[in-house]
Amino acid sequence: MPAAALLAVSLAGEVAAQPAPPPVTVATPLARSVTQWDEYTGRIEASARVEIRPRVSGQVTQVHFRDGAVVPEGALLFTLDQRPFEIAVESARAEVARNEARLTLAQQQLRRFAGLTAQRIAPEAEQDTRRSALREAQAGLAASQAALRQAELEMEFTEIRAPRPGRVSDRRVDAGNLVQQGETLLTTLVALDPVYVSFDASEAQYLRYARAARGTLRTARGEAGAQVQLRLLDEGEFGHEGRVDFVDSTFDPRSGTIRGRAAIANPELFLTPGSFARLRLFAGEVASLMVPDAAVVADQSGRMVLTVAADGTVAPRPVQLGPLVDGLRVVRAGLGAEDRVIIGGLHRARPGTRVTAQQGRIGTGPLASAR
After folding, report:
1. Cα separation of 287 and 123, whole Å?
2. Multidrug resistance protein MdtA-like beta-barrel domain: from which residue to which, for each copy (predicted)?
């Protein structure tokens, strides 16, 4: 066989021996309008907290609530010894009766001296004295009536009631203890429907909201704030909803964050102040590109996806990722709508190598399906 023929046969054998590029499944990113949410770690707080202290001094005679109970507004919590206050009310009533008698006498004397003065039997100076005595009696009656109202009010203060509905803590004093007006802490009461959830937003996040067309996190009087959703640490879904109702006036100079607060309905009183939760804040509808979460790979430089060029070469694309929506990962930056992303066979693809691209599609689930 001629030498040229032998060389041709040898080259053909080598070409046949080279394996074909490995197959991978590619698809263009799914373009969808996605509801964007910004997630924060929040702390649940009571919407109101009241320290129950006595408004009069005295001895506790009865405790009317069970520690940790939920009480309605006006519920009787403590009773103080009422006997000293009953005596004060009776004394004030007697003083009112005494001043009423003085007023009646002053009125009668003024009427008598009015006729005598008209007939010039009594001097005008005596008439002026009687008028002054009448005004003094009227003032004395008004003072005694005010003292009676004060005594009755203090009598009312011996029954210590819940100023609003909520859950009371444990009692700090028992029956028989002496308590001081405005000083002794009896218990605390917290309002639990709604509850507040406080969170800290970065300056970048706050500015993004401030520059958006919908306005800032702050709302005008009477307007509803941005929508929020909440889940507890052991919950998989954001099952609690509410609205932002407050944003602080300044940034914290130490952390560079600004404090926000959302009000969350809590009709079952399950959300407990002091606990942590995940909160997400509505950030609007945004046209986004989405890929399967499994198509995202990571190295020391960050997150990326692998794309296939027209000649079959694998090229990495660093990307900025968003949240996971319906099993797909939102890509906020770094990827084009026409890029062919490897969604299947990632283990067979290496940057710079060639692959055989098989067309697939990206559905609304976490997996891609090949056509």
Report:
1. 100
2. 194-282
pTM of the shown model:
0.67
Expressed as residue numbers, the domain containing 167 is 55-80+158-185
The domain that holds 59 is classified in CATH as 2.40.50.100
β-strand pairing of 23-27 with 356-362: parallel
Structure tokens at 308: 């296939």
Kindly state the DSSP code that residue 140 receives in the 8-state scheme.
Answer: H
The CATH number of residue 348's host domain is 2.40.420.20
b/e per residue 211-223 (b: at least 16 CB within 10 A): eeeeeebbbeeee
On whether residue 130 sits in a domain, the answer given is yes
Tell me how far apart the alpha carbons of residues 209 and 16 are, in angstroms, rounded to a whole number: 61
pLDDT digits (tens, 9 = 90+) for 150-168: 999 999 999 999 999 999 9
CA–CA–CA angle 34, 35, 37 (5° rounding): 125
How far is it, in rounded angstroms, from Cα 58 to Cα 177? 8
Task: Calculate the alpha carbon distances from 232 to 33, 46, 275 in Å.
Answer: 28, 16, 9
The tens digit of pLDDT for each residue in 299-327 reads 877 888 889 888 888 888 898 887 777 78
What six digits make up the tokens of 311?
A: 């000649």
- pLDDT greater than 70 at residue 2: no
Percent helix, strand, coil in the chain, to 5, is 25, 40, 35
